[in-house]
TrEMBL record:
Classification via Gene3D superfamilies: NAD(P)-binding Rossmann-like Domain, UDP-galactose 4-epimerase, domain 1
InterPro entries linked to this entry: Epimerase_deHydtase, NAD(P)-bd_dom, NAD(P)-bd_dom_sf, UDP_G4E
UniProt superkingdom: Eukaryota
Record-given protein name: UDP-glucose 4-epimerase
Native organism: Mortierella hygrophila
Pathway(s) of this molecule: Carbohydrate metabolism; galactose metabolism; Carbohydrate metabolism; hexose metabolism
UniProt keyword annotations, A-Z: Carbohydrate metabolism, Galactose metabolism, Isomerase, NAD
The reaction(s) this protein catalyses: UDP-alpha-D-glucose = UDP-alpha-D-galactose
Keyword Secreted: no
GO-annotated biological processes: galactose metabolic process
Domain NAD(P)-binding: 216-380
UniProt feature coiled coil, ranges: none
Amino acid sequence: MSPSKQAILVTGGCGYIGSHTVLRLLESGYKVIVVDNLSNSSYESLRRVHKLYAITAAASPSTQFEDAALPVETLIPFYQVDILDRHGLVKVFENHPEISSVIHFAGRKAVGESGRIPLDYYNVNISGTVNLLQVMEDFHVRKIVFSSSATVYGNPPSIPIPETSPIITVMSPYGRTKVFLEHILQDLCVASVIKQQQYLQDRTNNTDGANGAEVERNYEWSVMLLRYFNPAGAHPSGIMGEDCKGTPNNLMPFLSQVAVGKLERLAVFGNDYPTEDGTCIRDYLHVVDLAQGHVAALEKLDQEQAAGNYGCKAYNLGTGTGYSVFDMVKAFSKAVGTDLPYKVTDRRPGDVPNLTSDPRLANKELNWRAEKTLDEMCADLWRWQRNNPDGYAVSPSIPHPI
């Protein structure tokens, strides 16, 4: 199925990764519907997506972008719905029977916070996702790209980390929600194969109401688990980026707020890890590359379905290069043009010394590769934060309340 024929539901589509993915989907010819409860995001992000899409359209002679002239609420139908709200999700699918796939970002996402309020994480991330899957099944939409995480690897036995690395030492409730959801999606795929086999047997035997003249159904699920590492950066235009609510939980948005004077200094959580400089190492991935990874995943699911292949598969999305906290402070200070202050404090519960990806499977099978450099990542993040020191800082009217 060509992108121009497909409608994609993006949950959490107003968030940092979600909004960049919505833009990339539109640029790739997909129709997009967004669901977000706006608890940690802003509808303004979709207005910025609309603005950037119009800029892309103006620079292209292609008729593909004719819809850029549509108002944002028409181009990107939006519903302020929580994934725990079954009735709200049902209304979205009823209003958009053209939905063929889901990209699922919605959920809580902070490692440290998850240790303080684990029940909230298990409720929103697990119960909310199961709720979404049940509604998808009811509406015969059985194709999903799931936002997993490198945290599923816990403290891995070797670096770089392949997809075959065991997921038995997960260090945080957040990471455990991702592990549990991966298992749930794998179980769903296995069960769907059994259901499909039973249906085909009944259809052949013309039993249990199966009618040989009916259009053959397919109950099998297609699932892509994207285990991405540490997203960073912003859209190169400086128009769209990460709009943090309150104090940021992650290194790069925290550093960027130090750079604009909103925070006094960075807290470095421990300098006694078994790494070269004693600080944690992570694989930082530009958010624009990550957004393209989701488009590549959708294209791969379509190719596999066309070949009669269903099921569940995991891919790492990362660069394959790790940087320490001090490396990132140095690189971002260079982009800003001044040394940014920091203070070493105690370790943070749930952190592990090194999470660096082996991205070769995604390179090969998804035909995807992280292309942007660390310097580009830092420059783009600084451009966004410098131009938007208070984030989106607006409360636009929201269409399509449910």
